[in-house]
Task: structure prediction
Amino acid sequence: MQGLLERGDIHIGQSLGNAVPPHDQRFESHQIMPLELLLAFQPGMAPAPGDNVEIRCLAKYPLLVLDTNYANRRMFDAACRLAGLEPTIAFESRTPHTLIAMAESGHGVAVIPSTMRFRSDQLQVAHLTFQKKRLREPLAVFWDRRRPLPRYAIAFCRELADYASASRPTDER
Result:
C-alpha cells in the first residue's frame, strides 16, 4: 500500500496499523479499530467453552482459513508458531464468506477477521487468544502528506472510525 500512496495511485488506504512504518513522516494516519481473529464453528465442534479460545485448543480441529495473502492469516500463522501448534488446514480461501459457508456445513472451524459481518443461526463465534490475550492488530487509514486530503476526506476517516467503533458488538469494545 505504501507504494500505491507514494505514486498517487490511491489517495487513501486502509490497512493494518503497521502497513506504513510509524517513523515514516511522509504519511499521515487515522486509527480506526483493531482487527481481531475470530473463530466461527458449529456448537458441536466447539474447541473450548466460552467467548475466548486459546490457540492451542485448535490442534485437533480441521481449520478453514484465508490464504497467506491476507495479513490476518499471517498473524494466525505467527501465533501458531509461537504456540508450537502445527495447525490442520482443511481448506484455504480468498473469500471469508466461503469459510463461513463451509463451517455452517460442518467442514471445520473458520478463522475469520472481526471486520467481517455475517449472520448465522448455525454458528457460534469466539475470539482467538494466545496466552489469554486476544489476537489483534490495529487498523488505520493512511494518506500521503504531500497530497493533502480535502476536508471531506478527513471527515470520512473520522466517520469511518466512529462507525466502526459503534457497530462493533459490545463485548469487543
User: Anything to note?
Assistant: Residues 123 and 149 are 42 Å apart (CA to CA). Residues 1-173 form a domain with the D-Maltodextrin-Binding Protein; domain 2 fold (CATH 3.40.190.290).
